[in-house]
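Interim report, section 4.2 (structural modelling).
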Amino acid sequence: MIAGLALAAGIVLGLILRPTVPTWLEPYLPIAVVAALDAVFGGLRARLDGIFDAKVFVVSFISNVLVAALIVFLGDKLGVGSQLSTAVVVVLGIRIFGNAAAIRRHLFRA
Amino acid sequence: MRRRYDRPAVALGCLLIGFVLVVAYVRTHRGAPAAAKVHADLVDRVRSAQHQADQLDGRARGLERQLAKLQQQSLPQADSRRLDTEQLAAGQVAVHGPGMTVTLREPKKSAHSSNGGRGGTTGIAATNILTDRDVRSVVNELFRDGAEAVAVNGVRLTPTSAIRFAGQAVLVDYQPISSPYEISAVGDADTLSTNFAQSAVASRYQTLKGVDGIGFSFAESSRLSLPASAATALRYATPLRRSR
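Predicted structure of the assembly:
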C-alpha cells in the first residue's frame, strides 16, 4: 500500500520536476533503471515469500546502483564501458526474470 | 519483525525507484524532440543569416547608388561617362535593354527508372540532370553570341563571377539557385537569338529535351532589366601603371 503510493509519488515528482540528466550521469541511467526494476521485482518476490525486509530492500537497491555504476565507471576508464554496461544490464535482467518466475509460481502455482 | 523505520524506508525506496524510472522515460522521449529542436534552431540560424545577408546587400546597393550620384556630381563629364562604361562592363550597375532569355528546367519526374541498380549506390534518378556545366555552357554561348550583360536567376555575372556546383545546388557567385534556371542576356536581340538558335549548345539541349525531358526554351525580349552586382573589393589585383 505505502509502497504503491510512494511509487506513484516518485513518478509524479519526476513528471513535475522534469530534471535534465547531466551529461556525466547519462551512461549510468540505463543501469539505474534496470537496478530499479530489479529492486521492484525482488521486493515483490520477497513479500510473497514472506521474507520482505525494508532495510534489505532499500540498501540492496542503493548498493546495487552504486556497485553497477562503479563497474561501469571503471569500464569507462579502461575503455570497455559500453561492454560492462551491457554486462550489468544482462546480469540484472537475468535476476529480474528469476524474480518474475518466482512471483509467477507464487501467484499461479505454476 | 517490524521496526519503526520500515515504512519510511520502503516509501523512500519506492519513491526513488519511481523517480528513476520516470526520469529515464522523460529523457528518452525528449530525445527525439531535442533533435528536432536542434534542427529547427539550425534552420532559424540559416534563415537569419540569409536575412542579414539580404539586408547587407540592400545596404551595399543603396550606398553604391549614393556613390554613383556623388561621382556624377564631382567628376568632369568625360570621366563620368568613362566610369559609367567601365562599371557597365564590370556589372556594377543595373542595366536594361533588349535581349533574350534562355530557360532550363529540371524534368518534373526523372525519365529514368527509379531502380538505382546496385544496392548502396545513388540511382541516376536521384541526381539532377542539369548541373553547373549546363548553366555555364549556356552563359558562355550567350557571351559568344554577343551578350553584353548576363544574369542567372537574377544574379548578375561580373568578371569575377563563378558558376559552380556544390552538393545538389548550382552556385552563382556563391548564391545557391535552383531549377528553373533562367539566363537573361542583354544585347542585340535578333543577333543573339539567331546565333544562339544555330549554336551547338542549343541543339544539345534540344536533344536533351527530347531524351531526358528537361525544359528548354529561349525567347527574344525587347526589354530586359538586369540587376547590378555588388562591387567586389579586389585585394590583390592592382592596376598596372602605364608609363606616360
